């Protein structure tokens, strides 16, 4: 019997796996890796030392996560991703048991392993308009292939990148049990996402004041996971506002917080997060960007909470079943305000949300999708068979 397929999963240098609080890609990997191992895949995880996910082997590139630096000026942060990839490449050169690299590191993961002599699958988790010079002329040299996290994301990819795409695999989340019977559905709306302009929390806050609905914002502001952390940084670090998300939050969101109509509760996790989402009338998504994967959307559906927002990015694709969502044309704040004021979100079907999550967004289904992509990459990169003399 041959050895099992061995995949080096590159989680990047920014956050541990699983993440402590917010961490979109890292949360996806914390869900994916155990399911891959159940399928018989041997997983070597390239990550930071704080990671605690059970894997077959861990390659540690930094002892501590580097997320606090991710939005620093380029000349201060450019070496972090490069050093991480260099450490992984050194590991690969010293061994011959890795069959494929599965990279989740933005930009660097696409090009860093192209000449490593090993097949690569690079998952695109982000907006594909971000790096036109890279994506517009990319050449994987027959070794590097990509996948998207939604069909809508890949549809907007530059042709050069799309030629390397093998399809998409929707994100998944463990199907959380609904919190206990003491968690009743309330009238509040929740926005479950990192606080950043693309997620539109300032629009959500404005809608709360326009419509009389209560909105709870849950997620980090830059590297700060709580209001106390952010207040301390602003009081002691003169560079705290250099982070673009911090500056935007202070200028556009904080003035709309009143502790009642609009609250920011920081980055929640586990049962606390699930109780907030499960008790919400809906998740509100007034997006300013083309959402590629929608982890928070899938988490919301799994908890039986429908989604209301703008029809941007992957949202129409994830909410294409009756009763699971209510979408209006992008940036049509007036129509969205009218629906919220009328309580249209209360008519959506919470059982349909759970059923859709069980059918379409399970961890096991995501793992099978990636296992098939690994086989596809290996078939495309296999040396040509030679005939007998």
Automatic annotation (TrEMBL):
User: Where in the numbering of this chain does the Glycosyl transferase family domain appear?
Assistant: 189-359
Query: Is this entry keyworded Transferase?
Result: yes
Q: Name one Pfam family in it.
A: Glyco_transf_4
The superkingdom of the source organism is Bacteria
Q: Which residues form the Glycosyltransferase subfamily 4-like N-terminal domain?
A: 22-138
Can the keyword Metal-binding be found in this entry's annotation? Answer: no
The UniProt keyword set, sorted, is: Glycosyltransferase, Transferase
What protein name is recorded for this chain?
A: Glycosyltransferase family 4 protein
């Amino acid at each position: 019997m041959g050895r099992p397929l061995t995949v080096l999963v590159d989680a990047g240098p920014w956050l541990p796996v699983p993440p402590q609080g917010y961490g979109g890609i890292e949360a996806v990997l914390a869900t994916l890796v155990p399911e891959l191992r159940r399928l018989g895949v041997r997983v070597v995880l390239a990550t930071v030392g704080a990671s605690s996910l059970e894997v077959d082997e861990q390659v540690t590139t930094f002892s501590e996560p580097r997320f606090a630096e991710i939005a620093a000026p380029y000349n201060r942060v450019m070496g972090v991703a490069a050093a991480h990839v260099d450490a992984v490449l050194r590991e690969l050169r010293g061994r011959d048991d890795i069959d494929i690299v599965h990279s989740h590191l933005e930009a660097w993961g696409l090009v860093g392993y192209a000449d490593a002599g090993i097949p690569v699958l690079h998952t695109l988790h982000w907006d594909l308009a971000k790096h036109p010079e890279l994506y517009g002329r990319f050449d994987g040299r027959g070794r590097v292939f990509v996948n998207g996290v939604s069909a809508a994301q890949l549809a907007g990819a530059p042709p050069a990148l799309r030629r390397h795409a093998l399809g998409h695999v929707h994100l998944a989340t463990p199907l959380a049990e609904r919190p206990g019977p003491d968690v009743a559905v309330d009238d509040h709306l929740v926005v479950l996402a990192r606080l950043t302009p693309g997620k539109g929390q300032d629009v959500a806050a404005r809608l709360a004041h326009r419509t009389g609905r209560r909105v709870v914002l849950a997620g980090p502001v830059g590297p700060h996971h709580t209001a106390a952390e952010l207040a301390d940084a602003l009081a002691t670090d003169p560079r705290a506002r250099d982070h673009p998300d911090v500056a935007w939050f202070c200028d556009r969101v904080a003035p709309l917080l009143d502790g009642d109509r609009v609250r920011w509760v920081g980055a929640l996790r586990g049962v606390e997060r699930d109780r907030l989402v499960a008790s919400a009338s809906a998740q509100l998504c007034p997006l300013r960007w083309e959402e590629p994967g929608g982890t928070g959307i899938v988490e919301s559906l799994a908890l039986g909470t429908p989604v209301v927002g703008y029809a941007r990015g992957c949202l129409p694709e994830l909410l294409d079943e009756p009763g699971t969502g209510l979408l209006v044309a992008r940036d049509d704040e007036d129509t969205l305000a009218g629906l919220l004021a009328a309580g249209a979100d209360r008519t959506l079907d919470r059982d349909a949300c759970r059923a859709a999550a069980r059918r379409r967004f399970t961890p096991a289904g995501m793992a099978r999708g990636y296992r098939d992509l690994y086989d596809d990459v290996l078939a495309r990169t296999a040396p040509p068979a030679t005939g007998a003399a």
